[in-house]
Predict the structure.
Amino acid sequence: MDKYTFKMAAPEDASAILKIYEPYVKETVITFETEVPSLTEFAGRIEKIRRDYPYIVCWLNHQIIGYAYAHRQMERAAYQWNAELSVYIEEGSHQRGIGKRMYQALMEILRLQNVKNVYGGVTCPNIKSEKLHETLGFKRLGVYQRTGYKGGIWHDVVWFEKTIGEYETPPEPLRSIQEVAPERIEEILRRCAAGTKGL
């Protein structure tokens, strides 16, 4: 039986993650990036995110087939309790619940970091991604109209928001992922991976 496992991304995973991302750059408007980054640049991005936020990979048996991560939504200090989420699954591995479970894992970990709000931006139309956010309780905030030009066409982006924490006053400071107990993270990843179809 196939075995799905969620793990925190490691530096040596960069090549496999970039391989998943490359077709999204070349063949879709899901990302507005138009040139595939070099492995060195991409590995640097992963390492920068991993310092403060969760960056998760999904293994199917002995191969990485998807990844998801959170990053700071906006830079000013008052926005520190927000995070933006992204998930990418390799072609042929959709419709297994991987994206949903990885999003759930991200939100549970972010809650431990004192994040209050999470956001997702979706180039529309993208029915699968829009449905993913709605199924997980995200609310549609609005649309950035004709905000990105790729593939000879102007594209809209719809933004989603979900509250994941209590708004205490004053709020507890944002915690780096490095301050979260590894065993808590492992438990979340194990539990969320267990809901992926095929286990």
In short: The first strand starts at residue 4 and ends at 8. The two ends are 7 Å apart (CA to CA).
